[in-house]
Amino acid sequence: MPEAPARAHAALTIPKSISRRTSALRAILGVVFALSVLAVPQAVSPAPVAAGSSCTGWTSTTNPPKTIRVLNSRLKKVQTVTFRRYVKMVMASGEWPSRLKMATLEAGALATKQYAWYYAMKGNHRSGYSYNGQCYDVRDDTNDQLFKHYAQPDARQKAAVDKTWGLSLRKNGKFFLTGYRAGTSGTCAADTNGWKLFARSVEACAKKGWSYKRILSKYLSPNLKFVWSNSIGPNVSKPRVVLKTGNNVATGAATIRWQPQPKRAEIERFQLQRKVSGGAWKTIQLPKAKAWKTDAWIKIGANSRFRVRAKDTRGNWGPWSYSPKRRTVVKGPTGMSLAGGIETAAVQPQKVKVKFSGRSVALVMRTGPDMGRVKVFINGKSHGIVDLDRKKSTQRRLVFAKNWSRSKERSIAVKPVSSHARADFNGFLVLR
Fold first, then answer.
1. Which of 130, 168, 337, 366 is deepest in the core (most CB within 10 A)?
2. CB neighbour class for 401 (10 Å; exposed up to 12, middle 13-18, buried from 19)
3. CATH: 2.60.120.260, 1.10.510.40, 3.90.550.10, 3.40.50.300. Which one for 328-431?
4. What are the tens digits of pLDDT across the range 229-253?
5. Model-level pTM?
6. Distance between CA atoms of 326 and 241, rounded to whole angstroms?
7. Is the peptide bond before 48 cis (omega within 30 degrees of 0)?
8. What's phi and psi for 335, nearest 5 deg?
9. In sequence order, what are the residues at sequence separation of 6 or more whose Cβ sits closer than 8 angstroms to the Cβ of residue 107?
């Protein structure tokens, strides 16, 4: 491929000369390395662009753009692509194959991201980058970076992008255009020039145990600075609220679960908060700083909502991730209540059955040394027998729980296995 992306393109096909050159470079590596290049001569500043020109027009050099405009050369149209997705798909399009060392992938992910980020910045748009009156920031071919619209990044490629997402680079105090080529040397750092990564020698460095930061420092120095965003930390999945067997109504009827994204993110701690109806957000103490779940009390008859965020090992907090509003209600015979002075009643040999609408339901009963067994039915089908016999007597215990992904009209029933054994029924707890 050429040393620098062309400034104007009349055709939407890749020139044969470019294809031949790319093929030759791939042959050198023996792997699929489709190459993108830094649009600058060695050891000088990036080539100038039209002053004030803009397409995506991004302005931040600490937070990457939300989207990027890409020329789809196959469909012959300009597409707006989520920026993180774009970077991951470039990785998977052959630029940085998954079989490479993780440090190589991480260094490559940063170079890939900042290359595209640079051209999405306000003032860096190349005047010839337009098609049918629509501007675009990058092409999907080797004039910029390969972006195959059908590419499927794997877990290692995704992890490399996610790990370095909050990082950007400065050279001589300025945000600059990164780049990379295949290179011809298999010796670690043999072909450094201060502006590009050379994939073949970078991989040799990674095999020696170098980290991605050491690789970047060696290849892009002097005067290189790493800048972490103060607002970009790990993402967390939406908290999932479920009712769990064994929990107690008074202390923690629900279990709240979440996961960092990606799972391999470098987490220092999580923060979980709860909001009841129109009240303020209040922090819930976690059993451990890195715990992914905890039991939590939910006020019956009120709307509860949870939010969670993560802090990485560099001290950056990620965004809050919110659960939908959840509401618990009590179902059962007239007079049954779990909100205040609990009333217990001996279940008669006949079924106690209620209809409900929700995504979780729990059977709340007393357990103890004098308790018998009950059979649970959902929508008329048996869901097993619950043994209430315990060494220690406990009130308002969730002895059975069932959770679904969606709220729906259902029914639940409970019936003692024997008329001779005691079974104190507190009620059905429904989570909507």
1. 168
2. buried
3. 2.60.120.260
4. 755 677 888 888 888 777 777 666 7
5. 0.51
6. 8
7. no
8. 95, -10
9. 197, 202, 206, 212, 215, 216, 219
